[in-house]
Design brief:
The structure holds four protein chains of four kinds.
Chain B lengths: L6 H20 L3 H22 L7 E4 L10 E4 L1 H21 L7 H23 L3 H19 L5 H32 L4 H7 L5 H18 L8 H8 L2 H26 L3 H23 L4 H21 L3 H30 L12 H4 L1 H14 L6 H15 L3 H27 L13 H19 L2 H15 L1 H8 L3 H5 L1
Antiparallel strand pairs in B: 1-2
Helix pairs in contact in B: 1-2, 1-4, 2-3, 3-4, 3-10, 3-13, 3-18, 3-19, 4-5, 4-10, 5-6, 5-10, 6-8, 6-9, 7-20, 8-10, 9-10, 9-12, 10-12, 10-13, 11-12, 11-17, 12-13, 12-17, 13-15, 13-16, 13-18, 13-19, 15-17, 15-18, 16-18
Chain C lengths: L2 H32 L9 H10 L4 E3 L2 H19 L19 H21 L3 H32 L4 H11 L2 H4 L1 H14 L11 H4 L10 H25 L6 H20 L6 H8 L2 H17 L1
Helix pairs in contact in C: 1-10, 1-11, 2-10, 3-4, 3-10, 4-5, 5-8, 5-12, 5-13, 8-13, 10-11
Chain D lengths: L3 H22 L1 H21 L7 E5 L2 E5 L3 H24 L6 H20 L3 H19 L6 H30 L4 H7 L5 H18 L8 H8 L2 H26 L6 H23 L4 H22 L2 H32 L15 H14 L6 H15 L3 H26 L15 H19 L2 H13 L11 E3 L5 E3 H21 L5 E3 L26 H7 L7 H20 L6 H23 L2
Antiparallel strand pairs in D: 1-2, 3-4
The chains are: A alpha/beta, B mainly alpha, C mainly alpha, D mainly alpha.
């Protein structure tokens, strides 16, 4: 498998610097939280200052932003989108729903904690978090990237069986080819 | 060469025609065989005669020893001889094609061969005779036997066609007779040569009247518009070989007579103009009408009318090239159109309705016949390397040297129409799936051989036209200098009169 | 082996890349300022490309997609090679004496064709739609562009750019010498830069960024590189033809920047055309000016 | 005597007959005969003529002369290179069809016709060979029996019109010059009075330009090209249409050499340009690959007509170069499409898709030919276009260059469409087990592709014979370089630099992108695309094919309203109505006919003064 790299190597530093300052976000607007993305991106809070910009397709994206609760149906799509992204890739869980199910904690068709199904690098809590919180979450992600600690994608590759197990437990009709391994 | 004498052209077929019933009483198959020998002899004789015939030594036969202008005489010049041999050879081929013609029962075959012999006699007589009244007589022989042949099937349509033919033919004979009478009152002789010498004595108005009578009369035989109402019915109702006879012999005899009259007897400038105009009209209307025909044989009939129009145009130029082209056209048209009619009779016989639309996929069913039909079609629309191309080319060259660009354009645009309807048929024959399987009557061996021979003639003349051009040049010269003709028939008469 | 030539080529490419990247960043900055935002730093595009190159995985749907970006960068650098960067530049003179305008016009579509093939193989409907739009629009803006260039070629009897530059050193800039051709060329140039309202090819909100929508990682990085080089090449070409080229690098930067800002600022304040609207637009006024320019040229030579 | 020219025709005709017989016996034998005959003929053509052979004879007292002029040699070489390849291809393409004997018989006959046209130095044999070529090609066009009435008859009508215009011109030349030798015609033509010169010129031009599908006379071409078997269409569009170009060259440069005919040149140049533009537009909106290629051939021929009609040294050179190249790439394209048709059974671009990984070599040859067609450097098409534009610039045809340049830009649209729709895009399960085309079909395509690639960098290979040929046309000192293009004003394009640079950069970038994290670069199927998380099922076709250029169609819709076809159809209907009316003259009523006779007689009597001038 992939050996742990020495994060002090200069090349790695430059790479991380670049990754950190250019985050192409694929905002997966599932729940109500999606409404917070436009103000984050536009003039009021201008996330582009940090090099954050929207990406059109998962092929180009670095960050998968899950805004809100995930129904089991939606989870399938999210997994597929995540697997279509190119490494290194990061996931930001947005709002309480992604952490513990939030107000849908006992719903029959939503998942409670996103982390069991795809590796989340940064959670932003709140129901729902304001743009300031979102931006601070991104900044946190940038710090992690710089330090090389945002390695959810490696974790996903290493423990793929475990993740698949969890995913298949939720998704009954599993009709997905195995991607990105 | 004692046996080779033009008189046999007339005597033999005539006698045979009258004696044929007796032979039939003796031994029935003779009915089919005897005419064959006659035709064979005629063909052989014409070959022998044509070998050493030149424009300056026509063979002149005086019937019953009376010298012209008092007696009847047959003139076998290069021109008349060429047409006569053409007719006799065609006669032999058509006999060979049809002496076991399935569709004709026995007693019919007796009539059939008698009438065939008579038609040949008449047409050759028209061509060979040097006497105007005699020409009329032969015309009547041809006409009457042609009417009878048209109605040979005794069908309702056949009878109707024959009646139309008869009606219009009657006009022809009466007008020609009237013309002959007027002419006799004017010049007091019936010998064509002498007439042509004495013609300048005739008053112009009467001359024109006589010419118009002749023109209309022979125009009917020569299928000139609008006198050709009989043609489509006659061609489409008569038995297949008979249509070929009409195209190859009767029409040729008619146009021959017309040309003979115009070139030999009347030195009218307007005559050529009239011929040109009528030729153009005939050609255009006939081809255009042929485009809209559904029945195959009617289409062919109209197309042969168009060809006759083309021949008239070529004759009307009154130049050497024009006459050359015209004679070449007559030859080609006789061969090709006969081939087309002979093949068509098989094609049509195997379709229930006689329409073009029934011919789908015959290329598979009857490969030989379809191939030969296609060959004939290619030849008649004038595609190289087939014989039709050369005659068309010569017509165009003649027209060009007359500075008649418009005529060229007309001829060519009409040829486009021709191409359209012939290629419709070809594409149906070969490139359509057969509609339903009906039992096919294959052509018998002799018919196939005849058709193949015709096809070979077409191809060989097309690839190497010099086979035939020599004869045609002789014919041209012998038609064009009439003084030589007169001199040969009536030595010294011209000096006596002038 | 001509080392100085190879060195020159390398430096030219690097210059073009840098300048193109900075221009892109500047345009983003300007956009942000006009929208009353702070906007990214002007070196943002460098970071993006660097990030894309530092991606660790990549996917492709077959050889054509693998070759598409190569094709693009080959074409863009080749275009750059045959455009004289500086007038007197012994240094930047690469191969520009062995190419002329007509050659360049064909060279410029070479890359687009390659990109289109690459995008075609991904099998993504959005890519195909983007390509169809792009090619259609190309036919649109080629007409006034051609009219402008042909007017100049026939008026000054030269098809090589170096010849045109030498000529402009004597008679002054062509944008004043033959103004109508300049107008037509400029309007066509705006379309050529694919900024709004002519950004129907990449239209992010409709087409998911169109042709490149299946390209990620190194492929996207290579495409962005070639895009920046191509931008610079086009700018230099325009400056050479109409603004008399540039004698030193600063002048070149100044002129190209001015020309570059026109489509950018025009784009920020205008919405997006539909494809047939854009084509009809180019066949409208720009073509009219082109025809006027052509007639003017005709009048001048006869 | 067995003249070498005569022998060439003899070989062709013999192989026609033999292949017919052979195919009657067994298909394999027939195919062997076909291939051997074709290749021996072309080998004899290239090897057997060390000395300029001549064969003169008289047919029906016309002088006829066969020999290759250096100009006609080019076209003969074109035919004898392309036709054996097409026949080799055909042996595999036509496998299992019926009536193969007829097909190959006509195929050889049309080759014979083309060779004959190029070798005949007198109008009469030229016309004979022309007609042989025409009717044999007609028989092949309707060979498959697809809408014979419409396409076949249309082709035959237009060919007949062209041929008869030619014939009329020939006859008039015979009258004016008194000989049918082409050289005599050139020599004595200027003495003819001007109006006749004009008439003859126009007639000959019409006759020749119909075969090369010029705009108002082009309507036969799309159907004819797309209906005949592709193996023949390769020759039909590649070589047979060039016969028209050959004739146009003769007429424009040699016959109408005196300066009074510039108007005709202008008219034909514009007609060619309009042809190019409109044909390109029609090609863009086609959905059948055959039809698309047919229209694109018409368009390409338009360029060549422009080049010939302008008539300057450079433009003629460009025209001949483009003619040769068009033969190569369009033959190649038709063969490739034929291969696709053979393997998948359809050329409908909305159905066939994603064949690139199934038929890579076919895709390669298609790609090369498309690049050559679209005139993208560094392949050969660019060279021809460049020379054409330069000649137009130098001869001050400003708006002409705009029109054809726009057309060549629009050509990118259909070029991409044909590549994308057939080979790229989604790979559908129904085409899962398509195999690459068999070897006899591949070899010709590969050879032609290599030819295109080489001529792109070293056009001089072709310039040499072209320069010889132009001596015959009267351009004595044509200067050409092996791989350097120079225009009238001394501006140049160095093709070696171009291709060297492109090659280098391409290789460098290729190495870079292929080596960069090679381990983690993977191939994924075309079903794995970003469809906002949805998973496309195997039967869901996601490729975008139908109305591919709808916006462009909307943009150009005003000029596409009235097609030439509809106009001709209206004319045809009108004529049909007229003929139907005339047909009723023959009412079938005996009394009516009798009445005609009377009326005619009376009319003659009434008009006798006018007719006989009494």
């Amino acid at each position: 498998m992939i050996e742990k790299k020495d994060s002090l190597a200069i090349g790695e530093y430059i790479k991380n610097f670049a990754r950190k300052h250019s985050l192409f976000v694929l905002a997966y607007g599932t729940g109500c939280g999606a409404i917070e993305i436009p103000p984050t991106m536009t003039s009021r809070y201008d996330a582009e200052r940090f090099g954050i910009r929207g990406a059109a397709t998962p092929r180009q994206a670095d960050v998968l932003l899950i805004t809100g609760y995930l129904a089991t149906k939606t989870l399938k799509r999210v997994i597929r989108v995540y697997e279509q992204m190119q490494d290194p890739k990061y996931v930001i869980g947005f709002g309480s729903c992604t952490i513990n199910g939030g107000m849908y904690w006992d719903s029959y068709n939503t998942i409670n904690s996103l982390d069991k199904y795809i590796p989340v690098d940064v959670f932003i809590n709140g129901c729902m978090p304001r743009p300031e919180a979102v931006i601070s979450g991104f900044v946190k992600l940038q710090e992690y990237i710089q330090e090389g600690k945002a390695d959810g994608w490696r974790k996903y590759q290493n423990n793929i069986e475990e993740y698949r197990e969890n995913q298949k437990r939720i998704i009954k009709n599993w009709r997905m080819p195995d991607y990105n391994l | 060469m004692v046996i080779a004498d033009p008189i046999y052209y007339i005597v033999l077929p005539l006698l045979t025609a009258f004696l044929l019933p007796l032979f039939g009483k003796l031994y029935k198959p003779l009915i089919g065989i005897i005419p064959g020998f006659v035709f064979l002899f005629l063909a052989y004789m014409s070959v022998i005669l044509m070998i050493d015939i030149r424009p300056d030594n026509p063979i002149i036969t005086k019937i019953a020893g009376w010298t012209p202008p008092f007696g009847i005489n047959l003139v076998f010049s290069s021109f008349s001889g060429f047409i006569a041999s053409l007719i006799s050879i065609m006669g032999f081929l058509i006999w060979a094609y049809s002496y076991k013609f399935k569709k004709v029962g026995f007693d019919d075959s007796l009539k059939y061969f008698i009438l065939l012999l008579l038609v040949v006699t008449g047409s050759i007589g028209i061509v060979l005779t040097g006497d105007i009244f005699n020409l009329f007589v032969f015309l009547e022989i041809t006409g009457i036997s042609a009417y009878a042949l048209t109605a040979l099937y005794r069908g309702r349509d056949g009878a109707e066609a024959a009646f139309k033919f008869l009606l219009i033919g009657a006009f022809a004979s009466s007008m020609i007779l009237l013309a002959i009478i007027l002419l006799y009152t004017q010049v007091g002789t019936l010998n064509m040569a002498e007439i042509s010498v004495r013609m300048h004595e005739v008053d112009l108005k009467i001359k024109v009247l006589i010419f118009i009578l002749f023109f209309v009369g022979f125009g009917i035989e020569a299928e000139m518009f609008p006198l050709n109402g009989w043609v489509p019915d006659a061609y489409s109702q008569a038995p297949g070989p008979i249509a070929a006879v009409f195209a190859g012999m009767v029409a040729k005899a008619g146009i021959y007579a017309l040309v003979r009259i115009i070139y030999l007897m009347f030195d009218l400038e307007g005559a050529f103009h009239l011929l040109l105009i009528m030729g153009v009209i005939t050609m255009i209307i006939a081809e255009v009408v042929a485009l809209r025909q559904e029945a195959l044989r009617r289409m062919l009939a109209y197309s042969s009318i168009g060809q006759m129009g083309l021949i008239m145009i070529a004759f009307s130029f009154n130049t050497e090239q024009g006459v050359f082209a015209a004679i070449f056209l007559m030859f080609n048209h006789a061969i090709i159109k006969s081939l087309l009619f002979l093949t068509t009779s098989f094609l049509v016989y195997n379709t229930k309705t006689k329409l073009i639309s029934d011919l789908d996929g015959f290329g598979k069913k009857m490969p030989l016949v379809s191939l030969l039909f296609g060959l004939g079609a290619f030849a008649i629309v004038g595609l190289p390397p087939f014989s039709g191309f050369w005659s068309k080319l010569y017509v165009l060259i003649a027209a060009a040297n007359q500075h008649m660009e418009v005529i060229i354009a007309l001829i060519l645009s009409v040829s486009v129409v021709e191409i359209i309807y012939y290629f419709k048929v070809i594409s149906r024959l070969y490139f359509r799936k057969a509609s339903e399987e009906i039992p096919i009557q294959k052509p018998s061996l002799n018919s196939s051989i005849v058709m193949i021979v015709l096809g070979l003639i077409i191809i060989s003349v097309g690839v190497y036209p010099d086979l035939i051009t020599g004869l045609i040049e002789n014919a041209t010269t012998s038609l064009l200098n009439k003084d030589l003709y007169i001199e040969k028939i009536l030595p010294g008469l011209a000096e006596i009169i002038n | 082996m001509n080392w100085s030539l190879i060195l020159g080529i390398t430096i030219t490419i690097i210059t073009a890349f840098t300048v193109g990247m900075f221009y892109g960043g500047i345009s983003r900055k300007v956009t942000a300022r006009i929208q009353n935002r702070v906007g990214p730093p002007i070196w943002q595009n460098f970071l993006d490309v660097l990030k894309l190159y530092s991606k660790e995985s990549a996917i492709h749907h077959g050889w054509m997609q693998h070759l598409g970006p190569l094709w693009a960068i080959t074409a863009s650098t080749a275009t750059l090679m045959f455009v004289p960067i500086l007038n007197n530049g012994q240094f930047y003179q690469n191969l520009n004496f062995s190419g002329d305008l007509i050659f360049l016009m064909y060279m410029m579509v070479f890359g687009q064709l390659g990109m289109a093939l690459g995008a075609g193989q991904t099998g993504n409907p959005n890519s195909a739609i983007g390509v169809s739009r792009g090619l259609s629009q190309m036919v649109g803006y080629k007409v006034p562009w051609l009219l402008a260039l042909v007017a100049i070629m026939v008026q000054y009897k030269a098809t090589s750019i170096t010849g045109l530059i030498e000529l402009q050193n004597q008679i002054g800039w062509l944008m004043f010498a033959s103004p109508f051709a300049f107008i037509a060329g400029l309007l066509a140039f705006i379309g050529m830069m694919h900024y709004s309202p002519f950004d129907i090819v990449f239209a992010p909100s409709e087409l998911a960024s169109g042709p490149p929508s299946e390209f990620g990682g190194k492929y996207l990085g290579l495409m962005m590189t070639s895009g920046s080089i191509f931008t610079f090449a086009k700018l230099v070409l325009f400056v050479d033809v109409f603004l008399g080229g540039a004698s030193n690098i600063l002048e070149l930067l100044l002129k190209t920047f001015v020309i570059y800002m026109i489509p950018v600022i025009y784009g920020i304040v205008s919405p997006r055309y539909r494809t047939e609207q854009s084509i009809r637009y180019f066949w409208g006024w720009p073509t009219f000016f082109g025809v006027i320019g052509m007639l003017y040229a005709w009048y001048m030579i006869s | 005597m067995m003249n070498s020219l005569f022998l060439l025709l003899f070989i062709l005709f013999g192989s026609a007959i033999l292949s017919y017989i052979g195919h009657r016996i067994s298909e394999t034998l027939g195919n062997i005969i076909v291939v051997v005959g074709a290749f021996s003929a072309s080998i004899w053509f290239f090897v057997g003529f060390e000395t300029p052979a001549e064969f003169s004879y008289k047919i029906a007292d016309f002088d006829a002369l066969w020999s290759f002029s250096s100009y006609s040699w080019i076209f003969a070489a074109l035919v004898s290179i392309l036709s054996p390849l097409a026949l080799l291809y055909s042996t595999s393409y036509m496998k299992g069809k019926e009536r193969l004997g007829t097909f190959y018989f006509n195929f050889f006959l049309s080759i014979l016709g083309m060779i004959g046209i190029t070798m005949s130095q007198d109008f009469i044999s030229l016309f004979i060979f022309w007609e042989i070529m025409t009717w044999s090609s007609y028989l092949i066009v309707i060979y498959l029996g697809k809408d014979v009435e419409k396409v076949g008859i249309k082709y035959m009508i237009f060919s007949a019109i062209g041929a008869y215009a030619l014939l009329m011109g020939i006859v008039l030349i015979n009258r004016e010059v008194g000989s049918l030798l082409i050289e005599d015609a050139f020599a004595y033509f200027p003495q003819i009075q001007f109006s006749t010169q004009l008439l003859i010129g126009i007639l000959l031009l019409i006759g020749f330009s119909i075969k090369s599908a010029m705009m108002p006379l082009h309507v036969w071409a799309p159907g004819a090209y797309s209906n005949s078997p592709m193996s023949y269409t390769a020759v039909f569009s590649g070589a047979l249409s060039k016969m028209g170009i050959y004739g146009l060259g003769l007429v424009f440069i040699r016959l109408l050499s005196s300066g009074e005919f510039t108007l005709i040149n202008e008219i034909f140049a514009w007609a060619g340009a309009i042809t190019t533009l409109m044909a390109t537009f029609y090609a863009i909106i086609q959905d059948d690959a055959k039809k698309l290629l047919a229209y694109s051939s018409i368009g390409q021929l338009g360029y060549i007509i422009v080049g010939v009609a302008i008539g300057t040294e450079l433009s003629i050179m460009a025209a001949i170069y483009l003619a040769i190249l068009h033969a190569a790439f369009k033959g190649n394209l038709f063969m490739a499409i034929g291969a696709v048709e053979k393997q998948t059974g359809s050329t409908d671009m909305t159905l066939v898709t994603g064949l690139i990984r199934k038929m890579p070599l076919t895709f390669f040859s298609t790609l090369v030919s498309i690049i050559a067609l679209a005139a993208v450097p560094p392949l050969g098409g660019f060279v021809g276009k460049w020379m054409l534009y330069q000649s137009l610039l130098a001869s001050e045809h400003f708006f002409l260059i705009i029109v054809i340049f726009t057309a060549s830009t629009a050509a990118f649209l259909y070029s991409f469409k044909i590549l994308y729709s057939l080979f790229l895009g989604q790979e559908e399960p129904e085409f899962k087990n398509i195999k690459e085309a068999p070897l006899p079909m591949l070899i010709p395509m590969i050879l032609l592709s290599l030819f295109l690639i080489v001529t792109g960098t070293f056009p001089g290979i072709l310039f040499e014979p072209i320069a010889n040929g132009m001596k015959y046309l009267g351009f004595n000192d044509v200067n050409w370089n092996m791989s350097l293009l120079v225009n009238a004003w001394g501006d140049e394009v160095n093709l070696q630099h171009v291709s060297m640079y492109i090659g280098t950069i391409f290789i460098v970038a290729f190495i870079f992108i292929s080596l960069k994290n090679r381990k983690r670069t993977r191939y994924v199927t075309t079903k794995d695309i970003s469809t906002s998380g949805e998973i496309p099922l195997p039967h869901e076709n996601l490729s975008f094919k139908l109305n591919f250029y709808k916006p462009f169609e909307r943009a150009i819709s005003p000029v596409m309203k009235k097609t030439m076809d509809s106009i001709y159809d209206e004319i045809g209907n009108g004529l049909n109505a007229l003929f139907q009316f005339i047909r009723y003259i023959y009412s079938g009523n005996g009394q009516g006919y009798a009445l005609y006779v009377i009326i005619f007689f009376v009319l003659l009597l009434l008009l006798k003064n006018q007719i006989f001038g009494l």
